[in-house]
Amino acid sequence: MNEKMSNFQIPSKGGKENRFSLSQASVPLMFILICALCIPIAGLSPSYLINEIITRMGRNSFLILSLLIPIMAGMGLNFGMTLGAMAGEIGLILVSDWQIVGIPGMILAAIVSVPISVLLGVFCGNILNKAKGREMITSYIMSFFVNGIYLLVVLYLMGSVIPIKHGSIKLPRGYGIRNTVSLLSMRQKLDNLLAINVSGIKIPVATFIVIALLCLFIVWFRRTKLGQDMRAVGQDMEVARDAGIDVERTRIISIVMSTVLAGIGMIIYLQNMGNIATYSSHSQIGMFCIAALLVGGASVDKASIGNVFLGVILFHTMFIVAPRAGAYITGDSMIGEYFRVFMSYAVITIALIMYETKKRRDKSQTGKELAAAQQAEEAEAGKEA
Amino acid sequence: MTENTTMKNRVVEALKDFGLPRLIITGFLLLLLIMAPIVGADLPTQISNIINRFSWNGILVLAMVPMVHSGCGLNFGLPLGIISGLLGATMSIEFGFTGAFSFVVAALIATPFALILGVLYGWLLNRIKGGEMMIATYVGFSSVSLMCMMWLLLPYHSPTMVWGLAGKGMRTTISLEGYYIGALADILKIEIGNISIPTGSILFFALLAFAIWAFLHTKTGTAMTAVGSNPAYAKAAGINVDKIRMLSVVMSTWLAAIGILVYEQGFGFIQLYMAPFYMALPAVSAILIGGASVNKATIMNVIVGTILFQGIVTMTPTVMNNMIHMDMSEVIRVIASMGMILFALTRKTEAKR
């Protein structure tokens, strides 16, 4: 019986792969089409466009890469990456109050953010372990819940309990942080380090080196014992448990790693922007990063580094050209703004639907195969009798 | 002795059933009610506020019930129904109806939209059983952002609704003065001193709540509960699971459409564009605070939950401000409501699909 089942599974697996790649390619193809249509209409100069795309690649790639590890562990799209983003912001706020500038300031901010990220990640991981099967909605609500705590800390505790000295970042009432915190002393410090100029296009080499290091880390991590464990957990929790893997702990580690990386990613993101919108910088970040990853052809249960970069390029090209193209077609610039927001949500919706239908189809397929195997077995048994 | 322990056990059981977060929230509201007169807030005004806000939000919370019953989980896709309501509201004004009658027309126009969108939404949810809540959230988001474009593009011309200068594109907020403001609330309105009770709205809520309660006790309604608590058993009993789920989704969507109209007639404004975006979350947390879980909800949960949730929303700003001159209401509201949803999501549920 056992032998038979494995015989059954081998051909069906190959079939699945084929169907998978086809449906996976559909979203990037659609975006290539949209970009191809919008770029000529928007009428932006190629050098401007390329410059913008490269800037945004440097700005966002690190954040998006932080999503890969929970996907590996089968926990879906980590909407809770916002938690890390908040930790990163707290780090930056504190460091800019201590007036430590430039790259050392960024590194210190990262150091400050890590323990906060770890704490939040452990908390989030524990909650998600209690909500297996609905990790995504739970991590999504989680981001709102922690946003409430973030508000409490930043709006009430900073300046009253946590010492904040400088009036430029404190609200006039004496406690709480202003709506925007200027990061002038750190603005694009990483981007400008080793930056090279190729015919008017600025390439932030140092940022790309950091991103490349993270990519290498992820590639290496996949091969470690822990990485293998995560993949096993992602494939089948029960089997992994039987194989002696501590499923709960592995899942928590994957969320902690994602949160820590998101915190560092947020610091890279904000040094490029040059200021922190204290109460809104993090709120949309999860959504845009997830949308970009999915545009790159990732799905809820499978994502690679290639998806990240393809996604950043396609998604942000759409982001740059849509408002201009929309304004040209309809005469109203708001249409394009709403269009790109709509596309972000639509692409996430479609990816989620595809994932769930595929999951159901696979389930019924396995059921059918099992039934067929059983029937064959019975028929054989009948013959023998 | 044995009786005593069983009593004690029963109390402990009841408390466990009630849940710690719920206990904290109820305790917090009671504390606020006690504190209000001490710190000098006007209690009658506060109570009147709670009653009024209950009448605005009640039906939106009620819209959760059918989908929870059929096992589709919490309806995070509420904005879809709200959009149907908004289409009804704006079209009613566009076609030139005024006064309280425009409310009736708005409800009539909203209904076919709600039915069509509900059927599509239900069809989608039937294809992705088990992942309803996440997809519902994003169906809501996509539809709201799609409508943002539509509000700019649809050919509305009524001068009360479009931007004055451009002559096209809807305003973000539309006043209902002269239209159906207070259409229900002013029926049999009772005013004693500082307290005003919108009897009409409350009666309308009671009517719909009774209708849902009665429906859940019909044959189809019982079938719906069966589908929610054990789909395999329901299927074996000859119930068409997909059809029942579809019905529940359509009901939820329609209730949301009517709910937003009732909300608007109390609030006095139609809010377009991104306004419906996060409207599902307060409704979800309200019904959970009222004692519902991901797959169990009663009309009583709706009533208790809406009163508790709106109580906290209205009471905290005034009481806190009077007490410590610090408005922490937003933070408390976010932590309490999101904490409640998190708590509900982490509970083990009986129905496994």
Describe the structure.
The complex is a heterodimer of chains A (385) and B (353). By secondary structure, chain A is mainly α. Chain A has a domain at 60-298. Helix content of chain A is 76%, strand content 3%. Chain A has 14 helices and four strands. In chain A, helix 4 runs antiparallel to helix 5 and helix 5 (102-130) packs antiparallel against helix 11. The radius of gyration of chain A is 24 Å and the shape is globular. In chain A, 46% of the residues are buried. Chain B starts with a helix and ends in a 7-residue tail after the last helix. Chain B is globular. In chain B, a hairpin with a 2-residue loop joins strand 2 and strand 3. In chain B, 69% of the residues lie in helices and 3% in strands. In chain B, the strands form two sheets. Chain B has a two-stranded antiparallel sheet. Chain B has a two-stranded antiparallel ribbon with strand order 2-3. The longest helix of chain B has 27 residues, at 101-127. Chain B contains 14 helices and four strands. Chain B has a domain at 43-276. Chain B is mostly helical and 353 residues long. At the A-B interface, helix 6 and helix 14 of A face helix 7 and helix 14 of B.
Helical fraction of chain A: over 70%
Distance between the termini of chain A: 17 Å
The average pLDDT of chain A is 85
Strand order of the largest sheet of chain A: 1-4
- Enumerate the strands of the largest sheet of chain B in spatial order, edge to edge or round the barrel: 1-4
Q: What is the beta-strand fraction of chain B?
A: under 5%
The overall strand count of chain B is 4
Unreliable residue runs of chain B: none
Mean pLDDT value of chain B: 84
pLDDT < 50 stretches of chain A: 1-19
Query: Roughly how much helix do the residues of chain B carry, as a percent range?
Result: 55-70%
Biggest interface and residues each: A-B, 39 and 35 residues
Work out the strand percent of chain A: under 5%
User: What is the succession of H and E elements of chain B?
Assistant: HHHHHHHEEEHHHHEHHH
What is the subunit organization of this protein?
Answer: heterodimer
Structural class of chain B: mainly alpha
Question: Strand count, sense and closure of the main sheet of chain B?
Answer: 2 strands, antiparallel
